[in-house]
Structures are given as structure tokens and as C-alpha cells.
């Protein structure tokens, strides 16, 4: 679709309105016409190209100009057609294909040893040359995996009472990636509906083997239970691992006690507190608490938060002098970890060839854009106010006469997200990539000189 055709679609929406609510309002929903305008005017094609090129789109002699062309893109079309192994050699090829095919979802895969679109030709040679050689370290966290500890929502639904579980996950994982592994270029993205994605883009992260990725994923592995097991976290040893101790003292404990207890009313009913009592290995302790709470239910008129009160009673009993047996020493911590610790989709992180939805896609169910999240201000992120496709088109209509806007997205609420992506993530990343390319090239030259002089 040409720019003129895109503008014609916008003009048609402004004129005909398709049952417009008022003024320039665009009806809620998700359809191909909306996406055509979005990809034509708002989607940051050039920024995505620069990101996925990692500095290899420049004129420096050390650039690998085949790099971007070996990256796999996958398109899911409106009629459920799934196009894998798409590849492009320039930003114009990428943009033209996205505008033409208008995918409802774009997924990004690894960089392969050869152009993925030509993989069949290489396969005919008999050599196994088509293999992934580089890929960001990625993490996928979904709120549906917390359904056993949230009572406000379930499934794909999310609200401001349960979304903070995602905020906690960002805090814990981001801190560890930076402090424990030394990664610097990390992008957190709202999935568009019910979770978050993390892209670790440092060169050393992109070049990790599957075995190394699995080792990092296992570093974060604490929540090991399944839907059929009662106790899903076991903290063994005389002391917590420093990473777990930091996560507990700096994030998890405070969140559990000041927010989750009350927002999810974790002890408000017998069914809910029984799930917590099941995590106590000493049945006599669990029985004592059960009896106290059942008696309290029949006689108490206290206006205090019952979940907070019962949690303090549980802690007091488990941590009192005569209860500090080996089996109970970690019980309070295990309960907090069971309810708050990040629940990762481990397989996503372990394998280099896994696909992940691209930032700035539009979720077809909610219509919300997959916008970046600032990890340093993730507590302020509200998934319910993320721009929707129809909202952005409405803003384009209203802001159509603004002469001071440098880009179309500057006239919409998407502008803030694109500016953050550029200034806080992309620019520092590309600066680092340029330095890496120049240093690598200089090292090769020096090595060549040393070989000749020898």
C-alpha cells in the first residue's frame, strides 16, 4: 500500500466514519483497514531495521552487510496463514512487505548462517549449513501462569490488582540480568494483553549457545511445581543464594505483605488459607493455625485486614523459638516465593530458534500496541491505558492539522513509547555495537599485521 493509499484510508475514515461515535472518533475493534493505516503511518519500520541490524547497516569496513538479511521474520496474516522464514535485505524491503501483507502479528526469530528464505536451496547441497547462529536472550512471562495465586482475574484477563505480579517479575529479572550477568541492553515489552517479554541484546547474550541459555534460565528457576503439586518452591541449604536473598528482601517480601495479601485477600476464606496451610510441612502447626482462624471467624468483629492479621499470626508461629526446626526454617520465605516469584516460560529462553512477537505489534484480541516498558519506572506502567489501534487512528484524525509534528506518531499517544525506545534503548545499543564492530575490525587488522611481520 502506497502512502497515498494509506492517506486515502484515513481520509475515508474521517469522512464516512463507519458509525463514528462523535467528532473524529474511530469505532473500537481490530480490522485490516486499521492495520493498513497503522503500518503505513505509525509502525517504526526504520527503528526496527536499525535494531535488528546491530550496527551492520553502516559503511564501516567491519560491517557484515549480510547480517540483517539472515534474520528470520514470521508473519501471521488475517486469515490464519502463517508465513515463516521471511527475510529482507533493506528497510524498504521490510516496510514494503509489512505494508503489503498487513500481518496481524509479526514474530522475530534468530539470525541464521544463511538467508532463511533460501534455506531449501542450501539443503539440496547435502550440507547442514542452515542453522541459527545468533539470537537475543529472551524471556516470556504470562499472567495466566499465576492463576493459582490471583483471585481478581483468570485466564487472559488482567487488572490493576494482579498486574503488579508482572511488575515484580520485571524488577527481579532485570536486576539479576544487569547485576549478576553484566548485561546492559535490555528491552522489556508489554505483550499487548496479559504479560511481558524481555529481549537481552548485548553481543555476548546474542551469541550464547543453547546450553548457555539453558544455564541462565535454570539460574532463575525457583518455581518448579505443576498444577498437581501442592508445594512448588523448596528453598534448601543453610542460607538463600545471594540472588534469591536480594530478591526476597528488596522486592518480594514487601510486595507480598503490603500489596498482594490485601489485593488478593489471600486469607479471607477457608479455601484460600488452606492453600497456604498446605505449604507448611508440619501438620501440627497447620492444625493450630486452622483452629485459631476458624474460631476467629466465628467470634471476631475486628476491622483489621483479616489477611494481614492471619499472615502475622502465621509468621509468629513459624518463627517463634520452639518452631525453628529444620523443616520450618524456610517456610515463610517459601510461601512468599510461591506467590510472588517470576514464573518464566523456560523453553522460550533455552532455545535459540524460538520466535517472539515483535515490539510495536498490535494484539488482535485487545487492539493494544506492544509498547516498551521502562524497568526503572515499571511500577507506573498501566496495561489498561496502553494505546489501542482505534485510539491511535482517532488521534491521527484529531491531530491531522498539527504542523509541528515531525512524524505521524508524534501526533499520537504512541509517540512517548517510540521516543523511549529510541533514546533509552536503541541509541545506547547502537553506540555499543559501533564500538564492538570497530574494535573487532581493528583486532583483525592487528592480527593480520602480526602474521605478516612474523
Automatic annotation (TrEMBL):
<dbReference type="GO" id="GO:0005658">
    <property type="term" value="C:alpha DNA polymerase:primase complex"/>
</dbReference>
<keyword id="KW-0639">Primosome</keyword>
<keyword id="KW-0862">Zinc</keyword>
<protein>
    <recommendedName>
        <fullName>DNA primase</fullName>
        <ecNumber>2.7.7.-</ecNumber>
    </recommendedName>
</protein>
<comment type="similarity">
    <text>Belongs to the eukaryotic-type primase small subunit family.</text>
</comment>
<keyword id="KW-0235">DNA replication</keyword>
<dbReference type="GO" id="GO:0006269">
    <property type="term" value="P:DNA replication, synthesis of primer"/>
</dbReference>
<dbReference type="GO" id="GO:0046872">
    <property type="term" value="F:metal ion binding"/>
</dbReference>
<keyword id="KW-0548">Nucleotidyltransferase</keyword>
<keyword id="KW-0808">Transferase</keyword>
<keyword id="KW-0804">Transcription</keyword>
<keyword id="KW-0240">DNA-directed RNA polymerase</keyword>
<dbReference type="GO" id="GO:0003899">
    <property type="term" value="F:DNA-directed RNA polymerase activity"/>
</dbReference>
<keyword id="KW-0479">Metal-binding</keyword>
<dbReference type="Pfam" id="PF01896">
    <property type="entry name" value="DNA_primase_S"/>
</dbReference>
<dbReference type="InterPro" id="IPR002755">
    <property type="entry name" value="DNA_primase_S"/>
</dbReference>
<dbReference type="InterPro" id="IPR014052">
    <property type="entry name" value="DNA_primase_ssu_euk/arc"/>
</dbReference>
Amino acid at each position: 500500500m502506497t502512502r497515498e493509499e494509506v492517506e486515502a484510508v484515513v481520509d475515508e475514515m474521517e469522512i464516512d466514519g463507519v458509525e463514528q461515535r462523535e467528532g473524529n472518533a474511530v469505532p473500537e475493534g481490530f480490522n485490516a483497514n486499521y492495520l493498513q493505516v497503522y503500518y503505513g503511518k505509525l509502525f517504526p519500520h526504520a527503528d526496527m531495521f536499525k535494531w535488528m541490524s546491530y550496527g551492520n547497516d553502516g559503511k564501516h569496513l567491519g560491517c557484515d552487510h549480510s547480517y540483517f538479511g539472515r534474520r528470520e521474520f514470521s508473519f501471521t496474516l488475517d486469515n490464519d496463514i502463517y508465513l515463516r522464514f521471511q527475510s529482507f535485505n533493506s528497510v524498504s524491503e521490510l516496510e514494503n512487505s509489512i505494508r503489503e501483507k498487513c500481518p496481524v502479528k509479526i514474530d522475530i526469530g534468530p539470525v541464521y548462517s544463511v538467508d532463511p528464505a533460501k534455506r531449501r536451496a542450501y539443503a539440496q547441497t547435502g550440507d547442514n549449513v542452515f542453522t541459527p547462529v545468533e539470537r537475543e536472550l529472551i524471556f516470556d512471562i504470562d499472567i495466566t501462569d499465576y492463576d493459582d495465586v490471583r483471585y481478581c482475574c483468570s485466564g487472559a484477563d488482567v487488572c490493576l490488582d494482579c498486574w503488579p505480579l508482572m511488575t515484580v517479575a520485571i524488577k527481579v529479572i532485570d536486576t539479576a540480568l544487569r547485576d549478576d550477568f553484566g548485561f546492559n541492553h535490555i528491552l522489556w515489552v508489554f505483550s499487548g494483553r496479559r504479560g511481558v517479554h524481555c529481549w537481552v541484546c548485548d553481543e555476548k547474550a546474542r551469541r550464547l549457545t543453547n546450553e548457555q541459555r539453558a544455564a541462565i534460565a535454570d539460574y532463575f528457576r525457583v518455581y518448579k511445581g505443576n498444577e498437581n503439586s501442592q508445594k512448588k518452591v523448596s528453598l534448601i541449604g543453610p542460607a538463600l543464594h545471594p540472588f534469591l536473598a536480594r530478591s526476597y528482601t528488596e522486592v518480594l517480601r514487601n510486595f507480598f505483605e503490603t500489596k498482594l495479601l490485601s489485593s488478593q485477600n489471600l486469607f479471607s476464606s477457608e479455601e484460600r488459607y488452606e492453600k497456604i496451610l498446605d505449604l507448611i510441612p508440619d501438620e501440627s502447626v497447620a492444625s493450630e493455625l486452622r483452629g485459631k482462624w476458624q474460631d476467629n471467624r466465628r467470634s471476631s468483629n475486628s476491622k483489621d485486614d483479616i489477611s494481614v492479621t492471619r499472615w502475622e499470626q502465621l509468621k509468629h508461629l513459624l518463627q517463634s523459638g520452639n518452631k525453628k526446626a529444620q523443616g520450618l526454617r524456610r517456610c515463610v520465605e517459601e510461601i512468599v516465593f510461591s506467590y510472588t516469584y517470576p514464573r518464566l516460560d523456560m523453553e522460550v529462553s533455552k532455545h535459540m530458534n524460538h520466535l517472539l512477537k515483535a515490539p510495536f505489534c498490535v494484539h488482535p484480541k485487545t487492539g493494544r500496541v506492544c509498547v516498551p516498558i521502562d524497568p526503572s519506572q515499571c511500577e507506573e506502567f498501566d496495561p489498561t491505558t496502553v494505546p489501542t489501534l482505534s485510539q491511535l487512528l482517532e488521534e491521527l484524525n484529531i491531530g491531522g492539522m498539527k504542523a509541528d509534528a515531525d512524524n505521524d506518531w508524534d501526533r499520537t499517544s504512541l509517540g512517548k513509547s517510540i521516543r523511549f525506545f529510541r533514546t533509552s534503548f536503541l541509541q545506547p545499543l547502537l553506540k555499543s555495537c559501533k564500538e564492538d564492530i570497530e574494535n573487532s575490525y581493528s583486532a583483525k587488522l592487528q592480527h593480520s599485521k602480526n602474521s605478516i611481520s612474523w
